[in-house]
Amino acid sequence: MGQRPRILVIKLSALGDFVLSLGAFQAIRAHHPEAELVLLTSRPFEGLARASGLFDEVWLDAKPPLSNLPAVLALRRRLRGGRFARVYDLQRSDRTGWYFRLLWPDPPEWVGKVAGCSHRYTGMAESPKHIVEREAEQLAVAGIAGVPPIDLSFARADVSGLGLPERHALLVPGCSAHVPAKRWPPERYAALAKALAAGGTTPLLIGTAAERAEIEAIAAACPEAVSLLGRTSLEQLATLAGEAQLAVGNDTGPAHLIAAAGCPTLMLFSAASDPRAAPRGPRVASLRRDSLADLSLEEVLAALAGL
User: pLDDT, tens digit, for every residue of 30-41?
Assistant: First the structure.
């Protein structure tokens, strides 16, 4: 029996994009059922990638500066040593374009946007498209027809230690710290938390240290809310999403994960958000305002009723 072909998939960031790429991962695995599939990704997504069962190996990319010659040469040795028959570059960045060049003069088949690759996707310059649609077009260049809906059924983890109530909702008041315009004001989240609690649903506040101030302010205004600040892995968050009544979040990675896990999700967008990265899931809605300060609690409650 011949050696199994080795296939590399590259997806480095960010969480929302990683979640939206799960359908593409699943399509690649279905297209190469006998291959050894290797993912090159970033550390925050390692657990989710391993839990998916789609990959035989998960490699972590430290993303060294290209000026760091020893680190770049070490990465080149590793990529060359992988002896990959094909690479799917789902990051499609200038950095991963350099990875292609590191493999010269005999690069493997490469499915990406970089000039000179064997399966070049040239649709990047076309009108804006959602990442799921763009990746479906990219994979079609390599003969993969169709990308399935995102399936997060594999992402299950024990949440019993969190001591949570049976009826709960997820609130995600944070987002990238460098784009504060994406955040609905914390006092509006606090008012929403109070409304949910009054209706018998416990608000669970989701976030990391970057959202500490917002989450603490919401918890102080609504004592019934439960702060899960820094207490949930991505797999635990997906599990909570599968059990939650609903979720409301800003344009941020955890909200994308929650929506993909099947939770009825309302995502709030400002002019700082890119509509090409809207969440995907079975029950998803969104509200858009140039400034989220102009979005009222009443509008959010009405949209949740529609979900």
Answer: 999 999 999 999
CATH 3.40.50.2000 fits 167-306, yes or no: yes
Q: How far apart are CA 222 and CA 130, in angstroms?
A: 36
User: What's the CATH fold of domain 6-141?
Assistant: Rossmann fold (3.40.50)
Instruction: Tell whether the model's pLDDT for residue 275 goes beyond 90.
Output: no
**Where do the CATH 3.40.50.2000 domains begin and end in the chain?**
6-141, 167-306
The predicted-structure confidence for 157-187, as pLDDT tens digits, reads as follows 999 999 889 899 999 999 887 888 999 999 9
Which helix (H) or strand (E) segment holds residue 194: the answer is: helix 186-198
Token look-up 């297209």 returns 31
Contact predicate 246/304, CB 8 Å: yes
Q: Is 28 exposed, middle or buried (0-12, 13-18, 19+ CB in 10 A)?
A: buried
